[in-house]
TrEMBL record, chains A, B:
GO molecular function: 2-dehydropantoate 2-reductase activity
Enzymatic reactions: (R)-pantoate + NADP(+) = 2-dehydropantoate + NADPH + H(+)
Keyword match Oxidoreductase: yes
Domain of life assignment: Bacteria
Protein name: 2-dehydropantoate 2-reductase
Family from the record: Belongs to the ketopantoate reductase family.
Amino acid sequence: MKVLVIGSGAVGGFYGSLLAAQGAEVSMAARSDYMHVHAHGIDITSESKLGAYHFRPHTVVRNAAELPEKPDYVLLCIKVVENADRVGLLKDAVGPGTSIVLISNGIDIEDEIAKAFPDNELISGLAFICVTRTAPGKIWHQAYGRLALGNYPQGLSEKALELCKVFERSGITCVASEDIVAARWQKCVWNAPFNPLSVLSAGLSTNEILSTQESFVRAIMEEVCLIAEATGHPLPADTVNKNIENTYRMPPYKTSMLLDFEAGRPMETEAILGNAVRAGWNAGVPIPHLESVYALMKLRELGRGDG
Amino acid sequence: MKVLVIGSGAVGGFYGSLLAAQGAEVSMAARSDYMHVHAHGIDITSESKLGAYHFRPHTVVRNAAELPEKPDYVLLCIKVVENADRVGLLKDAVGPGTSIVLISNGIDIEDEIAKAFPDNELISGLAFICVTRTAPGKIWHQAYGRLALGNYPQGLSEKALELCKVFERSGITCVASEDIVAARWQKCVWNAPFNPLSVLSAGLSTNEILSTQESFVRAIMEEVCLIAEATGHPLPADTVNKNIENTYRMPPYKTSMLLDFEAGRPMETEAILGNAVRAGWNAGVPIPHLESVYALMKLRELGRGDG
Protein backbone atom coordinates (compact mmCIF):
# COMPACT_ATOMS: atom_id res chain seq x y z
CA MET A 1 0.00 0.00 0.00
CA LYS A 2 1.58 3.24 -1.20
CA VAL A 3 0.35 6.33 0.61
CA LEU A 4 1.14 9.99 0.18
CA VAL A 5 0.29 12.33 3.05
CA ILE A 6 -0.10 15.97 2.05
CA GLY A 7 0.44 18.24 5.01
CA SER A 8 3.11 17.75 7.66
CA GLY A 9 0.89 19.09 10.41
CA ALA A 10 -0.23 17.13 13.43
CA VAL A 11 -3.07 15.18 11.81
CA GLY A 12 -1.14 14.09 8.72
CA GLY A 13 1.99 13.20 10.66
CA PHE A 14 0.11 11.20 13.25
CA TYR A 15 -2.13 9.15 10.96
CA GLY A 16 0.66 8.71 8.41
CA SER A 17 2.86 7.24 11.14
CA LEU A 18 0.17 4.70 12.03
CA LEU A 19 -0.06 3.45 8.44
CA ALA A 20 3.74 3.27 8.17
CA ALA A 21 3.89 1.20 11.35
CA GLN A 22 1.57 -1.31 9.66
CA GLY A 23 3.93 -1.66 6.70
CA ALA A 24 2.49 0.89 4.30
CA GLU A 25 4.98 2.87 2.20
CA VAL A 26 4.13 6.35 3.45
CA SER A 27 5.61 9.39 1.75
CA MET A 28 4.96 12.95 2.67
CA ALA A 29 4.61 16.26 0.85
CA ALA A 30 5.58 19.03 3.25
CA ARG A 31 5.87 22.73 2.68
CA SER A 32 6.89 24.87 5.64
CA ASP A 33 8.41 21.92 7.54
CA TYR A 34 10.07 20.29 4.52
CA MET A 35 13.66 20.90 5.60
CA HIS A 36 13.21 19.44 9.04
CA VAL A 37 11.05 16.47 8.08
CA HIS A 38 13.27 15.60 5.11
CA ALA A 39 16.37 15.59 7.31
CA HIS A 40 15.00 14.22 10.56
CA GLY A 41 11.56 12.71 10.08
CA ILE A 42 8.90 13.24 12.70
CA ASP A 43 9.01 12.65 16.45
CA ILE A 44 5.70 11.76 17.99
CA THR A 45 4.97 11.81 21.69
CA SER A 46 1.68 10.18 22.49
CA GLU A 47 -0.06 10.16 25.84
CA SER A 48 -1.76 6.93 24.72
CA LYS A 49 -0.25 3.47 24.80
CA LEU A 50 1.64 4.38 21.61
CA GLY A 51 4.17 6.25 23.73
CA ALA A 52 7.04 8.16 22.12
CA TYR A 53 8.24 7.03 18.70
CA HIS A 54 9.88 8.19 15.52
CA PHE A 55 8.33 8.22 12.06
CA ARG A 56 10.61 8.39 9.03
CA PRO A 57 8.51 8.81 5.85
CA HIS A 58 9.60 6.71 2.84
CA THR A 59 10.14 9.87 0.75
CA VAL A 60 9.72 13.49 1.68
CA VAL A 61 9.03 15.97 -1.12
CA ARG A 62 8.05 19.59 -1.39
CA ASN A 63 5.56 18.85 -4.12
CA ALA A 64 3.79 15.66 -5.08
CA ALA A 65 5.07 16.06 -8.68
CA GLU A 66 8.52 15.01 -7.46
CA LEU A 67 7.33 11.50 -6.57
CA PRO A 68 8.28 8.76 -9.06
CA GLU A 69 4.91 6.97 -8.79
CA LYS A 70 1.35 7.95 -8.02
CA PRO A 71 0.16 6.56 -4.68
CA ASP A 72 -2.74 4.20 -3.98
CA TYR A 73 -4.07 6.69 -1.45
CA VAL A 74 -3.40 10.36 -1.00
CA LEU A 75 -4.36 11.65 2.44
CA LEU A 76 -5.08 15.37 2.35
CA CYS A 77 -4.73 16.44 5.96
CA ILE A 78 -5.13 20.19 5.97
CA LYS A 79 -7.64 22.57 7.45
CA VAL A 80 -10.29 23.83 5.11
CA VAL A 81 -9.72 27.55 5.35
CA GLU A 82 -9.64 30.36 2.82
CA ASN A 83 -6.56 30.26 0.60
CA ALA A 84 -6.14 26.51 1.13
CA ASP A 85 -5.77 25.45 -2.51
CA ARG A 86 -6.79 21.86 -2.02
CA VAL A 87 -7.27 21.08 -5.70
CA GLY A 88 -3.86 22.53 -6.48
CA LEU A 89 -2.21 20.43 -3.78
CA LEU A 90 -3.86 17.25 -5.02
CA LYS A 91 -3.33 17.82 -8.75
CA ASP A 92 0.17 16.41 -8.99
CA ALA A 93 -0.48 13.64 -6.48
CA VAL A 94 -3.38 11.91 -8.12
CA GLY A 95 -3.07 9.20 -10.77
CA PRO A 96 -5.83 7.17 -12.42
CA GLY A 97 -5.97 4.65 -9.55
CA THR A 98 -5.41 7.00 -6.65
CA SER A 99 -8.06 7.21 -3.94
CA ILE A 100 -8.33 10.66 -2.45
CA VAL A 101 -8.79 10.68 1.33
CA LEU A 102 -9.85 13.95 2.97
CA ILE A 103 -9.31 14.13 6.71
CA SER A 104 -10.81 17.46 7.69
CA ASN A 105 -13.44 19.09 9.81
CA GLY A 106 -16.52 20.66 8.37
CA ILE A 107 -19.63 20.31 6.29
CA ASP A 108 -19.84 20.09 2.48
CA ILE A 109 -16.09 20.08 2.09
CA GLU A 110 -16.04 17.26 -0.49
CA ASP A 111 -17.90 18.69 -3.44
CA GLU A 112 -15.08 20.89 -4.74
CA ILE A 113 -12.72 17.89 -4.76
CA ALA A 114 -15.27 15.49 -6.23
CA LYS A 115 -15.82 17.87 -9.15
CA ALA A 116 -12.11 18.44 -9.75
CA PHE A 117 -11.34 14.69 -9.76
CA PRO A 118 -14.49 13.06 -11.10
CA ASP A 119 -12.74 9.80 -12.02
CA ASN A 120 -11.08 9.18 -8.66
CA GLU A 121 -12.56 7.49 -5.69
CA LEU A 122 -13.17 9.96 -2.89
CA ILE A 123 -12.98 8.85 0.74
CA SER A 124 -14.11 11.39 3.28
CA GLY A 125 -12.82 11.21 6.83
CA LEU A 126 -13.17 12.75 10.23
CA ALA A 127 -10.59 12.66 13.00
CA PHE A 128 -11.67 12.81 16.64
CA ILE A 129 -8.35 13.63 18.19
CA CYS A 130 -6.37 16.11 20.26
CA VAL A 131 -3.06 16.38 18.51
CA THR A 132 -0.73 19.36 18.16
CA ARG A 133 2.36 20.20 16.14
CA THR A 134 4.61 21.72 18.79
CA ALA A 135 7.54 22.45 16.44
CA PRO A 136 8.65 21.39 12.94
CA GLY A 137 8.67 17.58 13.00
CA LYS A 138 7.38 17.39 16.58
CA ILE A 139 3.89 16.14 17.28
CA TRP A 140 2.18 15.84 20.63
CA HIS A 141 -0.75 13.42 20.70
CA GLN A 142 -2.70 14.44 23.78
CA ALA A 143 -5.85 12.30 23.62
CA TYR A 144 -8.38 10.39 21.55
CA GLY A 145 -7.66 9.33 17.98
CA ARG A 146 -10.79 7.76 16.49
CA LEU A 147 -11.37 8.07 12.76
CA ALA A 148 -14.53 7.78 10.70
CA LEU A 149 -14.09 7.02 7.01
CA GLY A 150 -16.49 6.42 4.16
CA ASN A 151 -16.90 7.11 0.48
CA TYR A 152 -18.38 10.37 -0.64
CA PRO A 153 -21.27 10.88 -1.10
CA GLN A 154 -22.00 7.49 0.44
CA GLY A 155 -21.11 3.82 0.60
CA LEU A 156 -17.94 1.88 1.35
CA SER A 157 -15.58 0.69 -1.36
CA GLU A 158 -13.09 -2.12 -0.90
CA LYS A 159 -10.28 0.40 -0.78
CA ALA A 160 -12.06 2.38 1.91
CA LEU A 161 -12.59 -0.79 3.97
CA GLU A 162 -8.97 -1.81 3.45
CA LEU A 163 -7.73 1.55 4.71
CA CYS A 164 -10.00 1.27 7.76
CA LYS A 165 -8.59 -2.17 8.52
CA VAL A 166 -5.02 -0.94 8.48
CA PHE A 167 -5.90 1.91 10.81
CA GLU A 168 -7.71 -0.51 13.12
CA ARG A 169 -4.67 -2.79 13.21
CA SER A 170 -2.57 0.20 14.27
CA GLY A 171 -4.53 0.38 17.50
CA ILE A 172 -7.00 3.19 16.93
CA THR A 173 -10.71 2.92 16.30
CA CYS A 174 -11.65 3.49 12.68
CA VAL A 175 -15.36 3.50 11.99
CA ALA A 176 -16.27 2.55 8.42
CA SER A 177 -19.28 4.72 7.70
CA GLU A 178 -21.81 4.05 4.94
CA ASP A 179 -23.08 7.61 5.37
CA ILE A 180 -20.04 9.76 6.06
CA VAL A 181 -22.07 12.91 5.43
CA ALA A 182 -24.26 12.03 8.41
CA ALA A 183 -21.08 11.52 10.42
CA ARG A 184 -20.02 15.05 9.46
CA TRP A 185 -23.33 16.42 10.71
CA GLN A 186 -22.89 14.39 13.87
CA LYS A 187 -19.52 16.01 14.47
CA CYS A 188 -20.91 19.42 13.55
CA VAL A 189 -23.42 19.10 16.40
CA TRP A 190 -20.49 19.51 18.78
CA ASN A 191 -18.29 21.78 16.68
CA ALA A 192 -20.95 24.35 15.78
CA PRO A 193 -21.44 25.59 19.34
CA PHE A 194 -18.13 24.92 21.05
CA ASN A 195 -15.66 26.08 18.44
CA PRO A 196 -17.11 29.57 17.86
CA LEU A 197 -18.22 30.10 21.46
CA SER A 198 -14.72 29.42 22.70
CA VAL A 199 -13.43 32.11 20.34
CA LEU A 200 -16.20 34.66 20.90
CA SER A 201 -15.83 34.32 24.67
CA ALA A 202 -12.11 34.96 24.23
CA GLY A 203 -10.91 31.65 25.57
CA LEU A 204 -13.46 29.92 27.78
CA SER A 205 -13.16 26.16 28.04
CA THR A 206 -15.93 23.84 26.91
CA ASN A 207 -16.84 23.32 30.53
CA GLU A 208 -17.19 27.00 31.34
CA ILE A 209 -19.32 27.51 28.25
CA LEU A 210 -21.58 24.58 28.96
CA SER A 211 -22.03 25.17 32.65
CA THR A 212 -23.16 28.79 32.12
CA GLN A 213 -24.98 28.62 28.76
CA GLU A 214 -26.29 25.09 28.36
CA SER A 215 -29.62 26.10 26.86
CA PHE A 216 -27.88 28.26 24.26
CA VAL A 217 -25.54 25.39 23.38
CA ARG A 218 -28.53 23.06 23.10
CA ALA A 219 -30.38 25.49 20.83
CA ILE A 220 -27.44 25.54 18.42
CA MET A 221 -27.13 21.74 18.53
CA GLU A 222 -30.84 21.29 17.86
CA GLU A 223 -30.59 23.50 14.80
CA VAL A 224 -27.71 21.43 13.41
CA CYS A 225 -29.84 18.31 13.88
CA LEU A 226 -32.69 19.99 12.00
CA ILE A 227 -30.43 20.71 9.03
CA ALA A 228 -29.05 17.17 9.04
CA GLU A 229 -32.56 15.80 8.98
CA ALA A 230 -33.76 18.20 6.31
CA THR A 231 -30.83 17.26 4.07
CA GLY A 232 -31.48 13.53 4.35
CA HIS A 233 -29.17 12.56 7.21
CA PRO A 234 -31.35 12.33 10.32
CA LEU A 235 -29.35 11.92 13.51
CA PRO A 236 -30.44 9.76 16.48
CA ALA A 237 -33.00 11.40 18.76
CA ASP A 238 -30.62 11.43 21.71
CA THR A 239 -27.81 13.18 19.82
CA VAL A 240 -28.03 16.49 21.65
CA ASN A 241 -28.37 14.94 25.09
CA LYS A 242 -25.43 12.65 24.48
CA ASN A 243 -23.24 15.49 23.28
CA ILE A 244 -24.12 17.53 26.36
CA GLU A 245 -23.47 14.62 28.73
CA ASN A 246 -20.19 13.69 27.09
CA THR A 247 -18.95 17.25 27.15
CA TYR A 248 -19.67 17.53 30.88
CA ARG A 249 -17.57 14.39 31.33
CA MET A 250 -14.67 15.62 29.19
CA PRO A 251 -11.83 17.48 30.85
CA PRO A 252 -12.03 21.23 30.13
CA TYR A 253 -10.87 21.49 26.57
CA LYS A 254 -9.57 24.18 24.23
CA THR A 255 -11.21 23.83 20.83
CA SER A 256 -9.20 23.70 17.61
CA MET A 257 -10.75 26.97 16.50
CA LEU A 258 -9.64 28.63 19.72
CA LEU A 259 -6.11 27.31 19.26
CA ASP A 260 -6.09 28.70 15.71
CA PHE A 261 -7.52 32.00 16.94
CA GLU A 262 -4.97 32.38 19.70
CA ALA A 263 -2.15 31.60 17.28
CA GLY A 264 -3.45 34.16 14.78
CA ARG A 265 -4.08 31.44 12.20
CA PRO A 266 -7.07 31.28 9.82
CA MET A 267 -10.08 29.56 11.40
CA GLU A 268 -12.41 26.94 9.94
CA THR A 269 -15.37 29.31 10.24
CA GLU A 270 -16.70 28.66 6.75
CA ALA A 271 -16.10 24.89 6.78
CA ILE A 272 -17.71 24.36 10.17
CA LEU A 273 -20.31 27.13 10.42
CA GLY A 274 -20.75 28.89 7.09
CA ASN A 275 -21.37 25.70 5.14
CA ALA A 276 -23.79 24.46 7.80
CA VAL A 277 -25.69 27.76 7.73
CA ARG A 278 -25.90 27.72 3.94
CA ALA A 279 -27.15 24.13 4.00
CA GLY A 280 -29.82 25.23 6.47
CA TRP A 281 -30.84 28.19 4.32
CA ASN A 282 -31.02 25.97 1.22
CA ALA A 283 -33.16 23.49 3.10
CA GLY A 284 -35.42 26.24 4.42
CA VAL A 285 -34.84 25.29 8.04
CA PRO A 286 -35.06 28.01 10.74
CA ILE A 287 -31.59 28.33 12.28
CA PRO A 288 -31.53 31.70 14.07
CA HIS A 289 -29.04 30.74 16.78
CA LEU A 290 -26.62 29.23 14.29
CA GLU A 291 -27.01 32.26 12.03
CA SER A 292 -26.23 34.55 14.95
CA VAL A 293 -23.10 32.66 15.88
CA TYR A 294 -21.94 32.63 12.25
CA ALA A 295 -22.57 36.37 11.85
CA LEU A 296 -20.65 37.06 15.05
CA MET A 297 -17.72 34.91 13.95
CA LYS A 298 -17.55 36.84 10.68
CA LEU A 299 -17.57 40.09 12.66
CA ARG A 300 -14.89 38.73 14.99
CA GLU A 301 -12.73 37.74 12.02
CA LEU A 302 -13.18 41.20 10.54
CA GLY A 303 -12.37 42.69 13.94
CA ARG A 304 -9.00 40.95 13.97
CA GLY A 305 -8.26 41.95 10.41
CA ASP A 306 -9.19 38.84 8.43
CA GLY A 307 -10.68 39.16 4.96
CA MET B 1 -35.26 75.20 40.93
CA LYS B 2 -32.91 73.23 43.18
CA VAL B 3 -31.24 70.28 41.47
CA LEU B 4 -28.86 67.65 42.75
CA VAL B 5 -26.87 65.68 40.20
CA ILE B 6 -25.60 62.34 41.45
CA GLY B 7 -22.62 61.21 39.44
CA SER B 8 -19.86 63.48 38.21
CA GLY B 9 -19.41 61.55 35.00
CA ALA B 10 -19.92 62.97 31.55
CA VAL B 11 -23.71 62.75 31.42
CA GLY B 12 -24.36 64.28 34.85
CA GLY B 13 -21.80 67.01 34.41
CA PHE B 14 -23.04 67.98 30.98
CA TYR B 15 -26.77 68.09 31.69
CA GLY B 16 -26.19 69.64 35.12
CA SER B 17 -24.24 72.43 33.49
CA LEU B 18 -27.11 73.16 31.10
CA LEU B 19 -29.59 73.54 33.98
CA ALA B 20 -27.16 75.76 35.89
CA ALA B 21 -26.75 77.99 32.85
CA GLN B 22 -30.53 78.54 32.93
CA GLY B 23 -30.42 79.71 36.53
CA ALA B 24 -31.09 76.48 38.40
CA GLU B 25 -29.20 75.92 41.63
CA VAL B 26 -27.31 72.77 40.67
CA SER B 27 -25.36 70.84 43.30
CA MET B 28 -23.43 67.69 42.72
CA ALA B 29 -22.68 64.54 44.66
CA ALA B 30 -19.38 63.15 43.40
CA ARG B 31 -17.37 60.21 44.60
CA SER B 32 -14.15 59.46 42.76
CA ASP B 33 -13.86 62.99 41.33
CA TYR B 34 -14.97 64.81 44.49
CA MET B 35 -11.63 66.46 45.24
CA HIS B 36 -11.19 67.89 41.79
CA VAL B 37 -14.77 68.99 41.21
CA HIS B 38 -15.04 70.52 44.69
CA ALA B 39 -11.87 72.53 44.15
CA HIS B 40 -12.13 73.38 40.45
CA GLY B 41 -15.60 72.63 39.13
CA ILE B 42 -15.99 71.10 35.70
CA ASP B 43 -14.56 72.17 32.36
CA ILE B 44 -16.67 71.30 29.39
CA THR B 45 -15.49 71.38 25.82
CA SER B 46 -18.33 71.02 23.40
CA GLU B 47 -18.05 70.56 19.65
CA SER B 48 -21.53 72.13 19.40
CA LYS B 49 -22.36 75.81 19.50
CA LEU B 50 -21.96 75.64 23.30
CA GLY B 51 -18.19 75.81 22.84
CA ALA B 52 -15.85 75.58 25.83
CA TYR B 53 -17.17 76.68 29.21
CA HIS B 54 -16.82 76.20 32.92
CA PHE B 55 -19.45 74.81 35.28
CA ARG B 56 -19.12 75.49 38.98
CA PRO B 57 -21.79 73.53 40.91
CA HIS B 58 -23.54 75.42 43.74
CA THR B 59 -22.37 72.84 46.30
CA VAL B 60 -20.23 69.74 45.80
CA VAL B 61 -20.62 66.94 48.34
CA ARG B 62 -19.40 63.41 48.68
CA ASN B 63 -22.79 62.23 49.87
CA ALA B 64 -26.23 63.73 49.45
CA ALA B 65 -26.74 63.59 53.25
CA GLU B 66 -24.35 66.54 53.56
CA LEU B 67 -26.72 68.88 51.72
CA PRO B 68 -28.70 71.31 53.94
CA GLU B 69 -31.93 70.94 51.92
CA LYS B 70 -33.54 68.28 49.80
CA PRO B 71 -33.64 69.23 46.09
CA ASP B 72 -36.67 69.67 43.83
CA TYR B 73 -35.09 67.27 41.36
CA VAL B 74 -32.40 64.68 41.82
CA LEU B 75 -30.79 63.58 38.57
CA LEU B 76 -29.28 60.12 38.86
CA CYS B 77 -26.82 59.96 36.00
CA ILE B 78 -25.03 56.65 36.38
CA LYS B 79 -24.80 53.52 34.31
CA VAL B 80 -27.04 50.68 35.37
CA VAL B 81 -24.46 47.99 35.98
CA GLU B 82 -24.00 45.37 38.65
CA ASN B 83 -22.86 46.85 41.97
CA ALA B 84 -24.40 50.23 41.13
CA ASP B 85 -26.39 50.77 44.35
CA ARG B 86 -28.87 53.22 42.90
CA VAL B 87 -31.30 53.07 45.84
CA GLY B 88 -28.47 53.66 48.29
CA LEU B 89 -27.24 56.65 46.32
CA LEU B 90 -30.71 58.20 46.20
CA LYS B 91 -31.72 57.50 49.79
CA ASP B 92 -30.12 60.56 51.38
CA ALA B 93 -30.97 62.81 48.45
CA VAL B 94 -34.70 62.37 48.33
CA GLY B 95 -37.18 64.40 50.42
CA PRO B 96 -40.98 64.32 50.30
CA GLY B 97 -41.19 66.71 47.34
CA THR B 98 -38.18 65.51 45.40
CA SER B 99 -38.71 64.25 41.86
CA ILE B 100 -36.32 61.49 40.93
CA VAL B 101 -34.94 61.77 37.40
CA LEU B 102 -33.15 58.74 35.96
CA ILE B 103 -30.98 59.41 32.94
CA SER B 104 -29.75 55.98 31.92
CA ASN B 105 -29.75 53.51 29.09
CA GLY B 106 -31.68 50.28 29.23
CA ILE B 107 -34.99 48.56 29.61
CA ASP B 108 -36.98 48.08 32.84
CA ILE B 109 -34.53 50.11 34.87
CA GLU B 110 -37.21 52.08 36.75
CA ASP B 111 -39.05 49.46 38.73
CA GLU B 112 -36.45 49.04 41.46
CA ILE B 113 -36.45 52.80 42.08
CA ALA B 114 -40.24 53.15 41.90
CA LYS B 115 -40.62 50.45 44.57
CA ALA B 116 -37.97 51.97 46.85
CA PHE B 117 -39.49 55.47 46.64
CA PRO B 118 -43.22 54.87 46.16
CA ASP B 119 -44.21 58.40 47.26
CA ASN B 120 -41.86 60.30 44.98
CA GLU B 121 -42.51 61.28 41.42
CA LEU B 122 -40.30 59.31 39.05
CA ILE B 123 -39.15 60.85 35.76
CA SER B 124 -37.40 58.50 33.40
CA GLY B 125 -34.99 59.88 30.85
CA LEU B 126 -32.86 58.92 27.92
CA ALA B 127 -29.86 60.81 26.62
CA PHE B 128 -28.89 60.63 22.95
CA ILE B 129 -25.42 62.00 23.19
CA CYS B 130 -21.72 61.37 22.64
CA VAL B 131 -20.02 62.75 25.70
CA THR B 132 -16.91 61.54 27.51
CA ARG B 133 -15.21 62.28 30.79
CA THR B 134 -11.60 62.67 29.69
CA ALA B 135 -10.18 63.34 33.19
CA PRO B 136 -11.59 64.31 36.61
CA GLY B 137 -13.62 67.48 36.00
CA LYS B 138 -13.02 67.41 32.24
CA ILE B 139 -15.85 66.61 29.87
CA TRP B 140 -15.70 66.39 26.10
CA HIS B 141 -19.06 66.76 24.37
CA GLN B 142 -18.48 65.27 20.94
CA ALA B 143 -21.93 65.27 19.34
CA TYR B 144 -25.70 65.14 19.74
CA GLY B 145 -27.40 65.87 23.06
CA ARG B 146 -31.12 65.22 22.72
CA LEU B 147 -33.04 64.12 25.81
CA ALA B 148 -36.34 62.30 26.15
CA LEU B 149 -38.12 62.65 29.49
CA GLY B 150 -41.41 61.37 30.83
CA ASN B 151 -43.00 60.08 33.99
CA TYR B 152 -42.73 56.42 34.79
CA PRO B 153 -44.70 54.34 34.00
CA GLN B 154 -46.37 56.93 31.78
CA GLY B 155 -47.73 60.47 31.52
CA LEU B 156 -46.21 63.91 31.96
CA SER B 157 -46.45 65.81 35.23
CA GLU B 158 -46.02 69.58 35.51
CA LYS B 159 -42.62 69.08 37.06
CA ALA B 160 -41.55 66.84 34.17
CA LEU B 161 -42.74 69.43 31.65
CA GLU B 162 -41.01 72.21 33.58
CA LEU B 163 -37.71 70.31 33.53
CA CYS B 164 -38.08 69.73 29.79
CA LYS B 165 -38.66 73.43 29.23
CA VAL B 166 -35.49 74.40 31.08
CA PHE B 167 -33.48 71.90 29.04
CA GLU B 168 -35.04 73.24 25.82
CA ARG B 169 -34.13 76.80 26.79
CA SER B 170 -30.54 75.66 27.24
CA GLY B 171 -30.36 74.90 23.54
CA ILE B 172 -30.78 71.13 23.35
CA THR B 173 -33.82 69.20 22.19
CA CYS B 174 -35.79 67.68 25.06
CA VAL B 175 -38.71 65.54 24.01
CA ALA B 176 -41.50 65.30 26.58
CA SER B 177 -42.73 61.75 26.20
CA GLU B 178 -46.13 60.51 27.40
CA ASP B 179 -44.84 56.94 27.00
CA ILE B 180 -41.22 56.95 28.07
CA VAL B 181 -41.18 53.14 28.18
CA ALA B 182 -41.88 53.09 24.45
CA ALA B 183 -39.04 55.57 24.02
CA ARG B 184 -36.77 53.12 25.89
CA TRP B 185 -37.77 50.34 23.50
CA GLN B 186 -37.19 52.69 20.60
CA LYS B 187 -33.64 53.33 21.83
CA CYS B 188 -33.14 49.62 22.51
CA VAL B 189 -33.78 48.91 18.84
CA TRP B 190 -30.43 50.53 18.13
CA ASN B 191 -28.59 49.59 21.29
CA ALA B 192 -29.43 45.88 21.27
CA PRO B 193 -27.49 45.11 18.10
CA PHE B 194 -24.77 47.73 17.97
CA ASN B 195 -23.58 47.77 21.57
CA PRO B 196 -22.91 44.04 21.94
CA LEU B 197 -21.79 43.50 18.35
CA SER B 198 -19.15 46.18 18.73
CA VAL B 199 -17.82 44.35 21.80
CA LEU B 200 -18.09 40.81 20.42
CA SER B 201 -16.32 41.84 17.21
CA ALA B 202 -13.55 43.33 19.36
CA GLY B 203 -13.95 46.87 18.23
CA LEU B 204 -15.70 47.21 14.89
CA SER B 205 -17.46 50.51 14.25
CA THR B 206 -21.20 50.71 13.65
CA ASN B 207 -20.51 51.16 9.98
CA GLU B 208 -18.33 48.07 9.64
CA ILE B 209 -20.94 46.01 11.48
CA LEU B 210 -23.82 47.28 9.40
CA SER B 211 -22.13 47.08 6.03
CA THR B 212 -21.16 43.42 6.53
CA GLN B 213 -24.04 42.04 8.65
CA GLU B 214 -27.09 44.16 7.88
CA SER B 215 -29.54 41.26 7.88
CA PHE B 216 -28.30 40.07 11.28
CA VAL B 217 -28.65 43.59 12.67
CA ARG B 218 -32.16 43.81 11.22
CA ALA B 219 -33.13 40.46 12.75
CA ILE B 220 -32.13 41.70 16.22
CA MET B 221 -33.97 44.99 15.71
CA GLU B 222 -37.12 43.21 14.55
CA GLU B 223 -37.10 41.10 17.69
CA VAL B 224 -36.84 44.19 19.90
CA CYS B 225 -39.86 45.65 18.05
CA LEU B 226 -41.76 42.40 18.67
CA ILE B 227 -41.14 42.63 22.41
CA ALA B 228 -42.10 46.31 22.51
CA GLU B 229 -45.36 45.48 20.77
CA ALA B 230 -46.08 42.45 22.95
CA THR B 231 -45.55 44.52 26.09
CA GLY B 232 -47.95 47.26 25.01
CA HIS B 233 -45.58 49.74 23.38
CA PRO B 234 -45.83 49.17 19.63
CA LEU B 235 -43.23 51.10 17.65
CA PRO B 236 -43.85 52.67 14.23
CA ALA B 237 -43.71 50.24 11.32
CA ASP B 238 -40.70 51.97 9.79
CA THR B 239 -38.61 51.81 12.98
CA VAL B 240 -36.10 49.24 11.75
CA ASN B 241 -35.64 50.82 8.33
CA LYS B 242 -35.14 54.25 9.86
CA ASN B 243 -32.56 52.95 12.33
CA ILE B 244 -30.66 51.26 9.52
CA GLU B 245 -30.76 54.33 7.29
CA ASN B 246 -29.73 56.68 10.08
CA THR B 247 -26.85 54.46 11.09
CA TYR B 248 -25.53 54.37 7.53
CA ARG B 249 -25.60 58.17 7.60
CA MET B 250 -23.85 58.46 10.99
CA PRO B 251 -20.08 58.77 11.08
CA PRO B 252 -18.46 55.46 12.19
CA TYR B 253 -19.12 55.38 15.88
CA LYS B 254 -17.74 53.57 18.91
CA THR B 255 -20.62 52.45 21.12
CA SER B 256 -20.73 53.19 24.85
CA MET B 257 -20.50 49.48 25.60
CA LEU B 258 -17.35 49.21 23.51
CA LEU B 259 -15.82 52.19 25.32
CA ASP B 260 -16.64 50.55 28.66
CA PHE B 261 -15.24 47.23 27.43
CA GLU B 262 -12.01 48.74 26.18
CA ALA B 263 -11.57 50.59 29.47
CA GLY B 264 -12.17 47.39 31.48
CA ARG B 265 -15.29 48.89 33.07
CA PRO B 266 -18.53 47.01 33.78
CA MET B 267 -20.89 46.99 30.79
CA GLU B 268 -24.64 47.63 30.64
CA THR B 269 -25.25 44.10 29.39
CA GLU B 270 -28.13 43.41 31.77
CA ALA B 271 -29.77 46.83 31.46
CA ILE B 272 -29.66 46.86 27.67
CA LEU B 273 -29.84 43.18 26.71
CA GLY B 274 -30.69 41.01 29.71
CA ASN B 275 -33.78 42.99 30.66
CA ALA B 276 -34.96 43.07 27.06
CA VAL B 277 -34.49 39.30 26.75
CA ARG B 278 -36.38 38.66 29.99
CA ALA B 279 -39.21 40.93 28.83
CA GLY B 280 -39.36 38.90 25.63
CA TRP B 281 -39.41 35.60 27.51
CA ASN B 282 -42.16 36.87 29.80
CA ALA B 283 -44.19 37.98 26.82
CA GLY B 284 -43.66 34.65 25.07
CA VAL B 285 -42.13 36.28 21.99
CA PRO B 286 -39.57 34.33 19.91
CA ILE B 287 -36.26 36.22 20.16
CA PRO B 288 -33.55 33.74 19.12
CA HIS B 289 -31.11 36.29 17.71
CA LEU B 290 -31.38 38.52 20.76
CA GLU B 291 -30.98 35.49 23.05
CA SER B 292 -27.85 34.48 21.15
CA VAL B 293 -26.28 37.90 21.45
CA TYR B 294 -27.12 38.02 25.16
CA ALA B 295 -25.67 34.55 25.80
CA LEU B 296 -22.50 35.52 23.95
CA MET B 297 -22.15 38.75 25.91
CA LYS B 298 -22.43 36.78 29.16
CA LEU B 299 -19.73 34.41 27.88
CA ARG B 300 -17.56 37.35 26.84
CA GLU B 301 -17.95 38.91 30.28
CA LEU B 302 -17.01 35.61 31.88
CA GLY B 303 -14.08 35.35 29.47
CA ARG B 304 -12.68 38.66 30.70
CA GLY B 305 -13.19 37.74 34.32
CA ASP B 306 -16.51 39.45 35.18
CA GLY B 307 -18.95 37.79 37.49
